[in-house]
Amino acid sequence: MTSQVETIGPKMQLADIITFLLEHKRSSAPVVDDQDVKRRLLGFVSEGDCLEYVGNELFYGNPSPPQTAETIMRKHPTCVGPETDLFTLTSIFTSHRFHHLPVVQDGNLIGIVSRRDVLKAIDVYYRDWNRTRDRERFPVDIHEIMNHRFIVGH
Prior knowledge:
Elements: H1 14-23, E1 28-33, E2 40-46, H2 47-60, H3 69-72, E3 74-75, H4 86-96, E4 100-105, E5 108-114, H5 115-137, H6 142-153
Helix pairs in contact: 1-2, 4-5
């Protein structure tokens, strides 16, 4: 999980959101209300959302009032908690094709977990699991080998 998350405010305009995503090399960003010290998650804006709204605006004309994060964000995004286990995260990422998930505690954004974060963690787990399984599958017990030699040899 990344706890240092670049966020946008609900009043940020569409052109500024696009600039933000491009400058920060992000495919999405959480929309938060930071009026308190806590960052209450309001929604999520993705490159796809921006493409949809800017495409519509260019085709149909400028909307009134201008589009903001608040008007284009996906409200109630799928979120996970800080205690969500690795296999649940893997299932969510593979089932829904998300790239990032907000990590929320008590309605406040505490971080973002990415597919890459999960892949790194599951790779470590998988390699350790394979090493353990190999040791369990091929334990060397010299007494058992010697006993089989005498039983099979006669």
